Amino acid sequence: MVISKETLHSLAKGVLMPQEEMLEVGRKKGQLYIGIPREIAFQENRVPLVPDAVALLVNHGHRVIIETNAGKAANFQDNDYSEAGAEIAYSADEVYKADLILKIAPPTLEEIGMMTQKQTLLSALQLTVAPEDFLKKLISKKVNALAYEWFRDEDGIFPVIRSMGEIAGGASILIAAEYLSNTNNGVGAILGGISGISPTEVVIIGAGTVGEFAARAALGLGAYVKVFDNSTSRLRRLQNILGTRIFTSTIQPKVLHKHLKSADVLIGALRSSKGRTPVVVSEEMIVDMKVGSVAVDVSIDQGGCFETSEVTNHTHPVFRKHGVIHYCVPNIASRVARTASYAFSSIFTPTLLNMGDEGGFEGLIRKDVGLRNGVYLYNGVLTSEILGEKFNLPFKDINLLMALY
């Protein structure tokens, strides 16, 4: 074969020209196999990962399998997920073959039965609605189980609780606005204020995340806001965050009763660190509220802070008692499932990416103390003192267990 001088010259020129350095692409430490079953809990409309997050995980080399219609209630279609790179499963059994099961609600006993040995479960714990023998069934499967509501971030904040609290706080004011209007057989009042007319009075009980975002929403609409909480430090913090002076008070029954008489909207935003939320609004206080006023008990997830509260649902959300419209739906965030799903996804996606980079569940919890705080089962061994005492089960310190493995 004869090569011309021109060809040799061009080849030599290409060799001698500066070339881009070719480096080996680093490989991920561990590929995750993530299963997302369709939620079967009553009126649970949220999904833990949105299609954009799935695409990011798949592009990082992870495998995602999702049950058909898992995102339908949040208006995400199967083709949205398949185009993002997820596999669509047409039975829950297929999903539960994955190494890591990602859910919003805790699994039912039937779902636990579909799980395999040594799987990792990431879901809510929600002991108030968990079925009997929930823990024992999981222990028998020797799973690793994490409760996302116990996760802490680098600032010591519970990110999921805060995120859902922000949604519930803002939504509670919008809900109250709906039921003040004629459309929902309300008194026909606008929530807020306009020139020449006294503004709507909103009383918020609780100065935590829910109370903060309820106050923000109400102030944004022009309402006159009053916040009650037994922590003066939380009330002071709220004043500073809002950047405006609002009425604040500790929860004193006579003072609260007095201000509820003129209130148009009452928001129950108390949260108990353990056990039931204390009842701070008596039936007598509700009786003396204005006819047609709206009471939204966001605390109903923990039993409610109004004496007149009764659990309702998204299909039949309200009832009237003593002329006051009561909204007592647990899981308000599920009412705005698409927004809530994006909120979950923004928290779970970095966690899953880090888990892959660290070689899996065990690698990540060794490094991430905040995530380790959410672990309540490690290789089938109970690691939560709270759960051990509540269910009279033996438990062990996770740090000691990790040292043994």
Overview of this structure, please?
The protein has 16 helices and 15 strands. The chain has helices at residues 5-16, 51-59, 78-83, 92-95, 109-114, 134-140, 159-180, 209-220, 232-242, 253-260, 283-287, 337-357, 361-367, 369-372, 385-391, 398-404; strands at 33-36, 63-67, 87-89, 100-102, 120-123, 144-147, 201-205, 224-228, 247-249, 265-268, 294-297, 318-321, 324-327, 375-378, 381-382. Helix 2 packs parallel to helix 12 (337-357) and helix 7 (159-180) packs antiparallel against helix 12 (337-357). The relative contact order is 0.13. An eight-stranded mixed sheet has the order 3-2-1-4-5-6-14-15. 37% of the residues lie in helices and 14% in strands.
Strand order of the largest sheet: 3-2-1-4-5-6-14-15
Mean pLDDT: 90
Biggest sheet descriptor: 8 strands, mixed
User: Unreliable segments (pLDDT under 50, ≥5 consecutive)?
Assistant: 21-27
Using the alpha-carbon principal axes, give the shape: globular
Structural class: alpha/beta
Give the topology.
Layout: H1 5-16, E1 33-36, H2 51-59, E2 63-67, H3 78-83, E3 87-89, H4 92-95, E4 100-102, H5 109-114, E5 120-123, H6 134-140, E6 144-147, H7 159-180, E7 201-205, H8 209-220, E8 224-228, H9 232-242, E9 247-249, H10 253-260, E10 265-268, H11 283-287, E11 294-297, E12 318-321, E13 324-327, H12 337-357, H13 361-367, H14 369-372, E14 375-378, E15 381-382, H15 385-391, H16 398-404
Parallel strand pairs: 1-2, 1-4, 2-3, 4-5, 5-6, 7-8, 7-10, 8-9, 10-11, 11-13
Antiparallel strand pairs: 6-14, 12-13, 14-15
